[in-house]
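FAQ: What does a multi-protein file look like?

Like this. Sequence, then tokens, then the next protein.
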Amino acid sequence: MTGDWVSLFSGGKDSSWALYRALEADLNVSRLLTVHPEGDSYMYHTPATRLAGLAAESVGIELTEVEPGELGADDVDDSGQQGDAELEPMEAALREIAAEDEIDLAGVTAGAVESAFQTDRIRGMCDRLGIDLFAPLWQADPVELAEAMFDAEFEILIVQVAAYGLDESWVGRRYDAAALSELLDLRAEYGVHPLGEGGEFETFVVDGPHMDRRIDVTYDAVWEGDRGHLVVTDAALE
């Protein structure tokens, strides 16, 4: 598949895996695109997206960022309308990228696993733009996906949790084989998804084979009784 590809990128494990697989497939990923949602979002990974710039620098691919003020999804009545509204700035950014003289936009990569809500909207956007979608995680077995990430030596930090069975010890924990084993036990008891696909937890990739330098993250852990997150106090490339 010739032409330029844009990787929809948050820095989390799923979008990072989609990027990694695209690079393995020799797709010419010439741009990363990060949307910074404000508050809860139906379409986007929300925590730690401000670290995407460091991740992009480590990967060595130019980053385009869409700021919260550009989202404009306040005056909507339901989740479907909000999802459509949240997609608009991404599509506008892709149109701007496609208009650049040096860009021949062929498609986008996405890290969706099971969410038809997100994937259907991204596919519709690609159809409108006349480009392809590369979604290597779509409908794959979540345990096999996690194990593939571990085998590839992704170093994954859990930056937010919000699910029964996940206590404050999970905030800032490494998502690795030991964590996955515990999550499978929690899936049987509480229904926790092993990839956090239901919003049970969110992640950030601090190192991987597609990155030149590891990201060192300093943070405070915040626990709010039944959920928690990291507040990043410093981050730098090692």
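And here is the next protein:
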Amino acid sequence: MEYDYFVTPQWLFEHQNDSDLVILDVSAPMPTQTINYQQHYLERHIPQAHFFNLDEVADKTTTLPHMLPSDALFSETLTQLGISNTTTVILYDQGNLFSAPRGWWTFTTLGCQNVRILAGGLQAWIDAGFKVEQGNVAITPATSAFVVKRNAQRKVDQQQIYENLTTKQRQVVDARSADRFYGRAPEPRPGLRSGHIPKSKNVPWDRLVEHGKLKSCNELRKHFEQAGVDLSQPIIVSCGSGMTASILFLALTVLGCQSIALYDGSWAQWGADSALPCEC
């Protein structure tokens, strides 16, 4: 089952020259960081990997960060990167499985089905003794355009969250730290209230990750159940901006949960509107 979502450095080393395989670095900074991951990519990356900027290949009609891009932008970007609907795409990040799941959620939500995450990320590749390269990599566009097949069931918006407060049809699980969730620590983005969406549950994302990999299924299940999450019922995942919610989405998918959606606007949207209800 693990291969459905991850590949090992050894697997990637053996398949890196496959004719229909593309490797993408999807590293992105936390909101408190000013790290230029694209510059770090130029200094050190897996051979033949391209950089995919989650904040640039995004919805530019909103001020919210890295929202799901339009079909046209996603199709154009993937086609230029040499990715068609049959291409195997391997995603990795330079950190502790922070942004690769967001890349995975974006790609799979928009119809890229042959996508996997490199377990352990760039560090695992280096630790395995495989070489890295510098600079940009030549790009050969795909001979056939990538056709977007958007799965609208994997995403919810603010109105759907608001309606769910009344219907209570789906559980809402927040990936932020407990201090942010309970309003004990300020939000890193200016202008946002402290607290959380009423009745939501808290499973901090970093409890699910270790050494750039998801923890075991037993450990993942334990963290969700300890937070009061019923894994047999529909779930909406949220966080600060839709980034770490993707880690919860991935973990729940690995656990076999069937009805999962991500609130793309997350607290960056909900917390900015004082008219919306809030709990601490």
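Q: Is there any per-entry metadata?
A: Some entries carry free-text notes. For the entry above: The chain has a mean pLDDT of 95.
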